[in-house]
Amino acid sequence: MSIETDARKPDAGETGASGDIQTICVVGAGLMGQQIALLAAISGFEVYCADTSTEALRKAEDFVAAWLPKQKAKGRVTDAQIALATDNLHFINDLDFGAKNADMAIEAAVEELGVKRAIFAQLDRIAPPHAILATNSSYLVSSKIADATSRPDKVLNMHFFNPALIMKTVEVVQGPHVSDETVEKVMAVSRALGKIPAKVNKEIYGFLCNRIFSVITKEACYMLDQGIASVEDIDNAVKGALGHPMGPLELLDMTGIDLEYRLGMERYRETGNLADKPSPSLVERYARGDYGRKTGKGFYDYEV
Ligand code: NAD
Predict the structure, then answer these.
(1) pTM of the full predicted structure?
(2) Annotation says 162 is catalytic
(3) Does domain 2-200 have CATH number 3.40.50.920?
(4) pLDDT per residue over 6-29, tens digit each?
(5) Of 216, 302, 291, which is closest to residue 261 (Cα–Cα)?
(6) What's the pLDDT tens digit per position in 116-131?
(7) Per-domain residue ranges of the chain
(8) Is the domain defined by 210-293 classed in CATH 1.10.1040.10?
(9) What separation in Å is there between the alpha carbon of 223 and the centre of ligand 1?
(10) Which residues does ligand 1 sit against, CB inside 6 Å?
(11) In terms of DSSP bridges, do strands 155-159 and 169-173 run parallel, antiparallel, or are they unpaired?
(12) pLDDT digits over 218-234, tens only?
């Protein structure tokens, strides 16, 4: 693990865990990218994780340095996996360097179409012709990105969930341009990362899980708006009767009311459908700056 600024040639690793995919370039070292990169490294892939921000790279390195011993103390990672992370994980500020020998890239940069299209065009120029180019985007389907490359059959959504080191599901989405071979390889990589991939046969806004989550949260907010039940009773009922580990309102506090508000407004602007507008309980909290855990107040109060 090191932030590498020089142009040392990456060597393909011997320990890759999924057929002809040995070396993975992760683009973005933020919340998701750092976890995907670490997961891939401890799963035996050679990993180059590139970010344009030196601060993000340093934070990612600090995250890895703190996470490994904590998990070892809990018996969740082995010494062998720590050795793999030490040898195989490279944080770098030069995407070209990370992409030039990659068999696959997983892009986890900011959720902006223009940024993602530019990254994919760059990956397409630099990565070997066989390399698969995946995006971890939550809402941008790969058909909006694939035509920035000369290999649309190898460009797809591979959607992890936060925390990516822990959550078992990865959604692998086959847009109309994606080949069966690409999907099969990404399903295999997902399994090699210890995940249970869900194959999504068609591109659809929000894929599987975010669509289902959005129905539940919309209904929870509707019942709250109508005074049908309190925040606590809604969450407790969902946990107690439906077996969810967290209630929908607690979960919104965790993922961020600001994010939910912005996604709702963006969707509404796209569809013009009033049902896509954020509910009053979200709008009120957004307007007050009560975004959830990160601000100390959302549906619940928190110590910050
Ligand atoms: P983040 O803001 O924590 O990290 C994004 C990183 O991308 C930043 O470190 C930024 O410096 C870097 N970046 C920006 N432009 C870049 C470029 N041109 N090249 C390289 N790096 C660049 O964001 P995040 O929460 O990790 O989300 C990343 C992606 O993952 C988004 O597409 C998001 O939709 C998706 N996603 C997020 C979550 C989540 O819970 N946060 C879950 C699943 C998927």
Answers:
(1) 0.90
(2) no
(3) no
(4) 333 333 333 445 779 999 999 999
(5) 291
(6) 999 999 999 999 999 9
(7) 2-200, 210-293
(8) yes
(9) 33
(10) 27-33, 50-53, 56, 95, 108-111, 115, 119, 136-138, 160-162
(11) antiparallel
(12) 999 999 999 999 999 99
